[in-house]
Design goal:
Number of strands: 21
Shape: globular
Radius of gyration: 31 Å
Largest sheet: 7 strands, parallel
Distance between the termini: 25 Å
Strand content: 15-25%
Number of helices: 22
Amino acid sequence: MSCNILQKSIEHLKGLSLRKAHLFNTELKLHTYEDLLFFYPKGYIHLPTLKNISELSKDNNNNFVQILGEITNIEEINYKNKKGKIWIARLEDQTGFIELVWFQKTNFLKNVKKNITIIVSGKIKCFQEKIQIIHPNIQYSERNSSIYPVYSIPSNLKKKGINNSLMINLLRNLIEESKNHIEEFFFQEFLDKKLMSRKKALIQIHFPESLDSLFHAQYSLKFEELFLLKLFFLSRRKAAYSRPFPRLGENFHNFYKHFLPFTLTEEQKKVLKEIWNDLKKPIQMNRLLQGEVGCGKTIIAILSMLIALDNGFQSCLMAPTEVLAIQHYFSIKKMFSKIGIKIALLTSSTSDSIRKCLYHEIFTGKISILIGTHALIQEKVQFKNLGLAIIDEEQRFGVEQRAKIWKKEDNLPHILIMTATPIPRTLAKIIYHDLNISIIKELPLGRKPVKTIHFSNENRDKAFEIVKNQISKGRQVYIIYPTINTSKKNMNLMKGYQEIKEKFKNLENRIGILHGEMNFQEKNMQMSRFLRGETKIMIATTVIEVGVDVPNATVILIENANFFGLSQLHQLRGRVGRGIHQSYCILITDQKISIEGFFRIKKMCETNEGLEIAKEDLKLRGGGDLIGTQQSGKNNFRIVNLIKDYKLIKDVFPIAKKFFHQNPDFFKNTKNIFHKYYKVNRKFKK
């Protein structure tokens, strides 16, 4: 884009006062003409969808409608013994009239004149045989237009005079002043099919002449966003060199032939082949291994570490909790003891004397495989030649934490990420091809899908009947709470502990408790008792979300389940169903929960598949910052929708890839375009 008019401060724009310009800067983060030009409408009002007033009736009560009409009268009325006022406007069209009602004076009422044409939207209310709309949304109409943009403006700004009408006037002024300074798509000549010109697309996105021109403009601007994003990913992938592992050696073959604890399923073999094909290349592997709990992801990780070892490289496995890290350590140590491979464990509980020794042995290469928690990313942990980094249950790690693992070496290690439920950001990156993905869908022979059931608090006794029934059969149970003791209104762990002791007096000495404020020794003791079957009911927070493998546990009951995200609920559900017995996940909520909470619970009851859960999570929480560090929520896109535009992604990416290969040095110039386009003020590192 040209850097002259479009880089002017928004305070110079005709129709915007300095006071309002300050609000645009601070509240809407709009500073320049260019910023406002890219402030796309959140939606549109299309005149053919408008209702005639004669079509409205009492039966439409609470229905949302849009009406085109004229204000013919405004009346100010005192009410409640003159303690307040209401304003009633008469809105007419050629078929009838309705009343518009305000209980406080708005900017619209201050400036309104009779006989102006407006578009009114809101919910119909019926009062004393009259049809009304209370506090309607108002859009000024122009007779020669059929589609009106609607901008996302916070309610606090509307009270300060920044409304939809102002936005439309400002955009008209901006486009008139700057339209000759909008540059063309830089890749337009490369395309076989014509996009709408960039100048026309930016005008039509704000002031569409027709639905066809609007759709064409949206398509063209989405194409540009996705084209730039693919160039960014391709440039980063091109620079991500790693050392190849060309051979399968003695350790791998010996273990695979003689010490593998079970025969690999066909899906496990397929995934191992995909990983091996990546490891043979001099380009960094960046692969996600997604599989339901208990499907055998860990054995794939072990075999991958043996490949690294046979090629002279160290490996590390980073787990999110000490419980999981220790579980991995002892199970892998037991398997490797037969072939003489030295592995070590490093967590926050490792003593200073042991830690000092470990640092030396890691640095000198005496330790081939290191297993641990966040302690692995400390600066003091320096590897001799780290070749493979495996991250287990990656949704528990922040983006920056994960990145620290592969920045420990000048030559980047290969990366294998394992999870039962990808977080929204991860799923988004799969969609955008920045991660390769391997999936293990097969469960071990004899496993049954977990039955998920929802009860409201009023029916919680029915939930505990299932618990009692399973305990009578010799099974074990988890009961999960979102907080330890901070929630006064809702159930917390300490309150729940007392309730459970009352309900199960015959099991008083067989009820355990586990939460994050306990020290490691206490947590380890409680988990050991549960693993041995001495504890029948484990009352816990999400500290058991990952890493606990108790085949005899058949029920997980989750209190205040609507407090948890979808991915977290799915991880918790994964604590049961690990044996041959039918297992249950019971979700308990208040009678009244948010709409979003309702959909999360509904989705949990409908499916056990982690990828389906993650897709729904993506819809609810957003894709996160695809080029930054934000786990979920709003991403940097101006117009692209991660879910709805998947087909367009498939069209754009091959074209961008072809462009990139024909113009390998182009991204050196495009980097700044990408920076500015997505407003990402951080350095890109190759």
